[in-house]
Each structure stands twice: as C-alpha cells, then as structure tokens.
Structure prediction request, 237 residues.
Amino acid sequence: MSQLSVVFGGSRGIGKAVAMLLAQRGHRVIVVSRNHEAAQTTADSLAGTNHMALSCDVSNEQEVQKTFETIQKTCGSVGYLVNAAGINKDALLLRSKSEDMVSVLHTNLLGSIFTCRAALRSMLTKGGAIVNIGSVVGLKGNAGQCVYSASKAGLEGFTCSLAKEVASRNVRVNLVAPGFIRTDMTAGVREEEAVRRIPLGRFGEPEDVAQAALFLLESPYITGEVLLVDGGLQLAM
Ligand code: NDP
Prediction:
C-alpha cells in the first residue's frame, strides 16, 4: 500500500537515495531539509508525481511541529518517517568547541526525537513505521568522533525504547547503522586508508543504505532492530 513518506535530510546523500527508492516503489514522498531549493530539486527528480519539498531545521522543535502541521493539512497522515538529517563536526574531545557539540547533539539526536514525537500524533491512531539513521560508530566508538558517536548511540537507545512504547499501536521503529558511505559527509575522508579496514573493500553507496531502510519500513514483523550496513567494518573495529 502506498504510504505518505517523510524523509528528513532527503535533499542529498543517504536521505535522497531513500526518497528515490520510496518514490520508485510508488510512495508519495515529502523531502525535507534546511535548504528548500535543494529539497525541491530532489522532489522534482523523483519518479511519479505529487511529491513535495519543505524546509525545516530539525534541531528546532517548533519548526518540526509546524512542518508536521503543514503535512497533515495538505497531504494527510504520515505512514513512513525516515530520519536521515545529520551533521558531523569531528574533533578530538579536548579540541571540540562547545557550540559544535551542542549543534551535533541537537541535530542528530534531539532532531530525530522531535520528528518522531511529531509524527506519532497521527501514527498512534493509524499505525506507521520509522527508520532512524544511526552509525556504526554509535555502537563501536571512534577516536575523534566522541560527540557524534554519542549522538548516534543515543539514537539507538531512543529507537529501542520508542519501539517498546508504541508497538501495541502498530508503529514500528528501527535503526540503520551505516559505515563509510560515499556522500558529502565523507568527502574529506582519506578513502584509500579507510577502505583497508572494510572487509568488503569499498565505501558503501547511499543506495546500499536506502535498500536497508526500505526493507525495515516494509517489514511488518520487525521492530527495535539495529541493522548495520557497513561492508563488515564493525568486524574490524
Ligand atoms: P549529507 O551531508 O550528504 O546529507 C545530510 C542531509 O541532512 C542533507 O539533506 C542536509 O540538508 C540535511 N540536514 C543537515 N542538518 C539538518 C538540519 N538541522 N535540519 C534539517 N536537515 C538537515 O549526509 P549523509 O547523507 O552522509 O548522512 C545522512 C545520515 O547518515 C546522517 O544522519 C549521518 O550522520 C548518517 N551517517 C552517514 C554516514 C556516511 O558515511 N555518510 C555514516 C554513518 C551515518 P541541509 O544541509 O539543506 O539541511
């Protein structure tokens, strides 16, 4: 059945690949990011019609609430929610700036909590599925990514707890934990060096993560699951 699907961070990278796959599967997609023009360009490029773009900063709860009010008014109830909005400000902890730490935690962790809370208002009566995008470093840790890892580890705990809270209302909540994926976020990573640690011997593509996200969205008997999409990287960490 076609679902109204909202993808935060859908303008590029992993979120864009998820939006593309959802549209190919016949779902109506709302692409959300801070940059409206980029979100609109992505929405216009999706298969099918009726897709929409909205601008919202997930770290601002009022903006998130307004976004869901707009969606409810103009499109109806959300069936699928994907939280792919995220940032990294990597640095050793002692060199991390306080404002960077706050913005990483606000965007990656609180942002997804805000969108889930707003989406639940209609999902609790009609059912639905949520996929949060975590990271392998949330499970394994990584030097230079203390705060980013904390945001993703927090997201994992949040996902499992929320899955327990809402399962009886037919709302499923799962997490995909990617390794190195080729997007703007990893543009500065020295690929040759990183690939040596990946058993499958390559960076993942955004489509690799999108496939896993779609699987979790569409699997009616999976909730509270953490699915690594990392080419086996966790085996070497
Ligand atoms: P990109 O930088 O390519 O894309 C990030 C997306 O998030 C963009 O659409 C961006 O749009 C949006 N975004 C960022 N901040 C906000 C905000 N405050 N409010 C709304 N939207 C926002 O990143 P990736 O696609 O690589 O990452 C997607 C997710 O996957 C992130 O959560 C990331 O942490 C996670 N991840 C990525 C990995 C990788 O190797 N690439 C590995 C593991 C996890 P805009 O700037 O216009 O707002």
